[in-house]
Write a structure and sequence with these properties.
Layout lengths: L2 E2 L4 E6 L5 E7 L9 H11 L16 E3 L3 E2 L2 E2 L4 E6 L21 H8 L16 H15 L4 E9 L6 H13 L6 E8 L13 H10 L4 E6 L17 E3 L5 E3 L7 E2 L2 E2 L4 E7 L9 E4 L5 E4 L10 H23 L7
Antiparallel strand pairs: 1-2, 2-3, 3-7, 4-7, 5-6, 8-9, 9-15, 10-15, 11-12, 13-14, 16-17
Helix pairs in contact: 1-3, 1-6, 3-6, 5-6
């Protein structure tokens, strides 16, 4: 279960403090021209050490492609790549080798495997999202060639809405106190044609929810009116159809978030993802060790006070991966295409 996708799929590998993280992307059609600088630009948006609002760990996050291309054109064969880890300080985690961090995957990993890599969280670290951004950057370029765009942005951080400066202020306050905050990211995919998605298993919103909820620290997903729609009446959230000047069927509002019956209707696909506060904080918290003995943990090391700034490109990547996969799946829907 280290693979995401059906036709367009990415299998990731690596741990936070291992030699490298990386991935193998399969299902990429041959003949797609890829701009490697654009892939690097997406990785740069996610990389640690880029500002005072993120972890001080400083990684270059350069993807080394090992297969799948002739020049910059896809061959249709698996794309293999690695992203080397260079700025690791594993000793920062020595005091966590036997202590379970509250709200973290430490105990659940021990319960599942009987062993865990405590160095930076090992496989449960957000470090393993870097390969997903590579896969997303490739999918994004394929989508852009079909007129489909994906954009995400923060709408709330630490309970604060407003300008970016206001929301960044909530992160700064949390960092100064040794604490952390969560937030909400909205993502919009525009230009997705009507008819994408499957009717029962593989509903487009279910595919997107699965992808988004696989991101570290993601705690909630909604699309369209989402939970707010539960308080509305049917007459208040009706997406009334009409024909536009080009003869296309459109809706006068977009309460459905671009998806009806699990299938895209041609309107913007609008979704929101909630992220919890980072669990590794400097404030002492009660916990237990691996023998069940009571203990107190005040985490050391370099950690993000909020995942939101670096999660934005990850959300975009997961949306691009999912929509590209759904487009490829849809080619099986009609015999006379």
């Amino acid at each position: 279960m280290n693979t995401i996708g059906t036709i367009y799929r990415i299998t990731t590998f690596g741990e936070s403090h291992g030699p490298a993280v990386g991935g193998v992307i399969d299902g990429v059609p041959a003949g797609i021209t890829i701009d490697f600088d654009a892939v690097a630009a997406q990785l740069a948006r996610r990389r640690p050490g880029q500002s005072a609002l993120t972890t001080a760990r400083n990684e270059s996050d350069a993807a080394e492609f090992l297969s799948g291309f002739l020049g910059n054109t896809t061959l249709g064969s698996p794309i293999g790549f690695i992203i080397r880890n260079s700025d690791t300080r594993s000793s920062d985690y020595d005091n966590m080798a036997r202590l379970y961090r509250p709200n973290h995957a430490d105990y659940s990993y021990d319960a599942k495997y009987g062993i865990r890599d405590h160095r930076g969280g090992g496989r449960s670290s957000a470090r393993v999202t870097a390969p997903l951004v590579v896969a997303g950057a490739i999918a994004r370029q394929a989508l852009e060639q079909r007129g489909i765009a994906v954009q995400a942005y923060p709408v709330e951080i630490g309970g604060t809405r407003g300008t970016i400066e206001d929301m960044e202020g909530a992160i700064t306050q949390a960092r100064r106190s040794g604490d952390s905050v969560g937030g909400i990211i909205e993502c919009v995919a525009s230009g997705v044609p009507a008819g994408i998605g499957e009717p029962i298993g593989g509903k487009l919103h279910a595919m997107l929810a699965s992808a988004m909820m696989s991101i570290n620290a993601a705690k909630g997903f909604e699309y369209g009116d989402g939970f707010a729609g539960a308080a509305a009446r049917g007459s208040e959230c009706a997406d009334l159809p009409y024909s536009d000047s080009d003869g296309r069927i459109r809706t006068r509002a977009n309460h459905s978030g671009g998806i009806q019956g699990g299938i895209s209707n041609g309107e913007d696909i609008v979704m929101r993802i909630a992220f919890k506060p980072v669990p590794t904080i400097a404030i002492p918290l009660e916990t237990v060790d691996s023998d069940g003995n009571a203990a107190t943990l005040a985490a050391r090391g370099r950690h993000d006070p909020c995942v939101i700034p670096r999660a934005v490109p990850i959300v975009e990547a997961m949306a691009a991966i999912t929509i590209f996969d759904a487009l490829l799946l849809n080619r099986c829907a009609k015999w006379n295409i």
